[in-house]
Amino acid sequence: MDKPRSVHWETALRILKYIKTSPGKGLLFKRHGHVKIEAYFDADYAGSKDDRKSTSGYCTYVGENLVNWRSKKQTTVARSSAEAEYRAMAHTTSEILWLKNLLKELGLMYDDPVPMHCDNQAAIHIASNPVFHERTKHIEVGCHFIREAILSQKICTPFTPSSEQRAYRIKAV
């Protein structure tokens, strides 16, 4: 930080007091030979009976350890299940890129593409197809964002059947 202020100092002291008073608390991570990052995401289509907005959910694993999850109602009404899944894919991509940057700052380089498991073939096709159509125009910004991450091999989008989808229950929380 370039010019810390008193609010920064107070926050740092608060964190140190918390650490001092809770030495027995923490997270236990299982150690594995190779650090592998995986993400699962899912969305329901028009799940809200009030406004027909979809709910997205994702979870991120480092090894076998769940490190990040979220469930959130989408801000706009999706016109198809593929669009709802694609919006969830864009949010998950953003989180994966953040996690990779965090690991990089901690000195843990992770150059492998992170598999983002998807159970919607249409969303996977939109992500890998460089041609835009009239039906995908309204999600074009998300398309470019995800496609850029795929082309730079930061993520990949393997198909995962719904029965193996770990994020299925996250969106219900």
Quick structural summary:
The chain is of the alpha/beta class. The chain is built from four helices and five strands, in the order αβββαβααβ.
Helices and strands in order:
Blueprint: H1 6-21, E1 37-43, E2 55-62, E3 65-73, H2 81-105, E4 114-117, H3 121-128, H4 140-151, E5 155-156
Parallel strand pairs: 1-4, 4-5
Antiparallel strand pairs: 1-2, 2-3
Helix pairs in contact: 2-3, 2-4
Organism: Sesamum calycinum
Protein name: Mitochondrial protein
InterPro entries: DNA/RNA_pol_sf
Structure description:
This protein is α/β, with parallel strands linked by helices. Helices cover 35% and strands 17% of the residues. It has a single domain, classed as Ribonuclease H-like superfamily/Ribonuclease H (Nucleotidyltransferase, domain 5). The protein is built from four helices and five strands, in the order H-E-E-E-H-E-H-H-E. The protein has a five-stranded mixed sheet. Strand 2 (55-62) and strand 3 form a beta hairpin. The protein is globular, with a radius of gyration of 19 Å.
Count of DSSP strands: 5
Largest beta sheet: strand ordering? 3-2-1-4-5
Sheet with most strands: 5 strands, mixed
The CATH H-level superfamily is: Ribonuclease H-like superfamily/Ribonuclease H
Total separate domains: 1
Instruction: Average the pLDDT over all residues and give the rounded result.
Output: 84
Helix proportion of residues, in percent?
25-40%
Terminal CA distance: 36 Å
Write the CATH fold name: Nucleotidyltransferase, domain 5
Number of helices: 4
Q: What's the CATH class label? A: Alpha Beta
Shape, per Cα inertia axes: globular
Whole-number radius of gyration?
Answer: 19 Å
CATH architecture: 2-Layer Sandwich
Percent strand equals: 15-25%
Task: List SSEs in N-to-C order.
Answer: HEEEHEHHE
Structural class: alpha/beta
Low-pLDDT segments, ≥5 res: none
